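ARCHIVE CARD
Drawer: 12
Card no.: 0347
Subject: one protein chain, sequence and derived structure
Cross-reference: see card 0346
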Amino acid sequence: MYNPNTIVFSLGKTVLIPRKNFNFTVVMDCGLFMITEPSISLHVFAYDEESLIIEFAHTIKFLWRCYALENDNRLAQDALELKQRLLSSFEEVAVITEA
């Protein structure tokens, strides 16, 4: 079974690395694989495990771009709280490539 705590999320020239082990719950219900982590408003589902992994990565990147990187002035209070949880949960690190 897929372990979502082992993934690094590519953002092009940077990657997101989890700062901690999450308590991601991966279950199958009604024919769907699901990952949830309420602390970062994560709820992802797919028909198969491969699609779940892809959707999981897309959702983390979406949350990061829309909340963690957004200007505080543009976010409502609950979105600011989510932003802080994301910033404390992940570290964005530059990818070093050799020339």
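Annotation on reverse: The chain has one domain: 4-94. Residues 4-94 form one domain.
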